[in-house]
Amino acid sequence: MWSFFSRDPTKDFPYEVGDPVPGLEDKSVWTLHKGKKRGTQDEVSIFLFDVQKHSETLFDIAKASLKRLKTIRHPSLLHYLDSCETEKCLYVATEVVKPLSKHIEDMKLEGQQRELFLAWGIFQITRALSFFNNDGNIKHNNVCLYSVFVTAAEEWKLGGFEFITSHGQEGSSVIPIKILPALEIYDPPEKKDATKLKSVTKCSSDMWGLGCLIWEAYNGPLKNQPSLKTVDNIPKQLCTLYCELVSANPASRPNPADIITRCRKLGGYFKNDLIDTMLFLEEIQIKDKAEKAKFFSTLSSYLDSFPEAVCIHKILPQLMTSFHYGDAGSAVLGPMFKLGKLLEDAEYQKQIVPCVVKLFASNDRTTRSRLLQQLDQFIMHLQNSTVNDQIFPQVIHGFLDTNAVIREQTVKSIVHLAPKLNYNNLNVEVLRHFARLQSKDDQGGIRTNTTVCLGKIAAHLHPQIRQKVLVSAFVRATRDSFPPARQAGVLALAATQQYFLLSEVANRVLPALCPLTADPEKQVRDAAFRTIKGFLGKLEKVSEDPSLKEGMEADVHTATPSLSNAAATWAGWAVTAVTAKFYRSHSDTAKVQHPVKSTLSKPGSLEQPSSSSMSTTTSSVTSMTSLEHSESASDYDPEHWDMTAWGEIDSSAATTGGSGKSGTSSAGGAGGLAALCEDEWDNDEWGELQEQPAAESELASPSETWNNSEWNQPMQNANATFVRNTSRLEHKPAAHQNSNDSLGGWEDGEFEPIEENADQNNASKMDEMRRKREERKLQRQREMEARRTARGQGPMKLGTKITAPAPPF
């Protein structure tokens, strides 16, 4: 029983005391230590007072300070957690903090980030003093560099409650005596001048301390009071206020509430992006949806100038809270993913990945589209199992969405997902949907981008599937009614040439390319001519030296192609370049229409390298991988491509709708098909894909960004699609495909020529049919006349009308 009353009280204190933290020493009655909570191992700070080493007076001051810390709560005050008193020590547990003196000494911030950090900190202390003086009617009496602490989020917290007094109590005008000699330097001048004590206000002593704190923030620890006259390092916009704070007349020192009001005005010291952001986040729960949307849309542009610790430990948690419990919606995704890049991988998995998985399950189209657009920012942090089991099953629904934006963004997202997808998801599910989109989708741009994406993910496909699919799919694209789709098919064949057997090149690829040499679009013709020359040169090289065949076909059956081929980034068209322009097509029917001559803007390429092990990181300028190969066993001689003297395509050709002439260069590097891919897919003058839908509730063009002002234009649905009907393909008017439609495949037998509805083809067919009908009609008339003649020469039959000759007149 007696052991129960005599047990050690520290056993009930759920914190372990760790190593001491320097910075306070003789400036406080406390010593600061690191600490951890038992069980969870969460980090805390422990303020320790050694009873045996200090006097009874200091012990009373420490207990009074603890009492104030327990009872006074404010966002800018040190946050109390727990305490414990024993015969030897007094323990106080708080949030993890560091003395401001030590933090400034170790701080590596420079320039704008340093200025924002200091302004935000001084604002927080001013706000805390306003709470003390105006709301609590008490005086702190100990404001200095050593009574301020900094959290992990680089927030300044006011501590040092050892000398707090109430303003209304008797003798409150007398400034308390600080037993620690090192703190006497911060005493205001009226302490030694009794004549000035009558003009002391409830905030005058604390405002003197705030002036000392500002001077120390920019100059370091204060050595003597005359140094306060040096204002060289203090910002000019703060100098006037600083001089008022350290005025010898107590009555002239401003109230902290007035300081905040003055400095928060336009051009004031407290009017900056960081303080505006932090104050908005503190009040985000009372902001309306429009204010939140505007705030989140501009937040990303400010984050680079904010201190990293503030972004990670303060802004990001607020964004996560707004996402989980508020109505921030998809607007929070941009800044959240940008800040997620600052996290360690373990923290990213813990904080961001669960949000990503939750967002992909959302039915909101805007949220899904923004996720797909920003997939490149977080895909590298996702585990393969998470992608295959939780994300891909949600992404795949986008292939069947009735909105063209979602379908196109889903197609583009596969480029980033492909390296992480398993065999079934990539080689079966993705290709099944790609086949349907390429043959049946009513949007020409989606059919084009499907071909482009298939070329980009070719390196990740299984070799057997790749050999079976690529040629058939790209040949299908060359027969599309949409000119950019045909061009995409040609360039895809050129860029993935290392995956084709030479027999396929001769028997399937070249026969499919030859008709395109007479294509109505000059861009398509140019691409076809150059690609044909390249493949012919390759075959000719093997014909001269058959030993090269094995090297040229080395990548056909390999799961990991050589890095020198690097076909993963073959096209200049960047999948993540949402602003990429395509032809503005009023009707994507089988009838070929020449693009309207117009001046177009250059697209901003946002090409992101694939995270595959075989992909190479390239800039937006060199993101197109060419067919030039190093001299290895698996590559043919790149000098062969020089003989074709390909040269570069004149960028003005696209502007004139194919009427311009392409430039050529006499010198041939190892350009080959590489020049074709670079020139064609970097062509910035394709124009927009099509008109935009007018419905405000739906998303806009697949090729436009979310802020595009052209979303309200009407979309023309006169596009055409080709539907497989038994043994042949029938051409039918375009319509949104039902999600239950059978998914087309890329079997060889399914690639009969697609019937074109072009005027030049139909005219000849109609003439031929009309001629045959006329011939049959004339033949029937001749037969009928012959039968009449035969009947007239034979015996007359019953009922035959006798025709008498006309009487003469």
UniProtKB/TrEMBL annotation:
Residues 628-639, 765-788 have a biased composition (Basic and acidic residues). Residues 15-270 form the Protein kinase domain. Residues 610-626 have a biased composition (Low complexity). It comes from the Eukaryota. Residues 747-758 have a biased composition (Acidic residues). Residues 593-639, 651-672, 692-713, 732-809 are annotated as: Disordered. Gene3D superfamilies: Leucine-rich Repeat Variant (1.25.10.10), Phosphorylase Kinase, domain 1 (3.30.200.20), Transferase(Phosphotransferase) domain 1 (1.10.510.10). SUPFAM superfamilies: ARM repeat, Protein kinase-like (PK-like). Pfam families: PK_Tyr_Ser-Thr (PF07714). GO terms for molecular function: ATP binding; protein kinase activity. Residues 657-672 have a biased composition (Gly residues). Residues 700-713 have a biased composition (Polar residues). Belongs to the protein kinase superfamily. Regulates COPI-mediated retrograde protein traffic at the interface between the Golgi apparatus and the endoplasmic reticulum. Involved in the maintenance of the Golgi apparatus morphology. PANTHER family: N-TERMINAL KINASE-LIKE PROTEIN, SCY1-RELATED S/T PROTEIN KINASE-LIKE. This is N-terminal kinase-like protein.
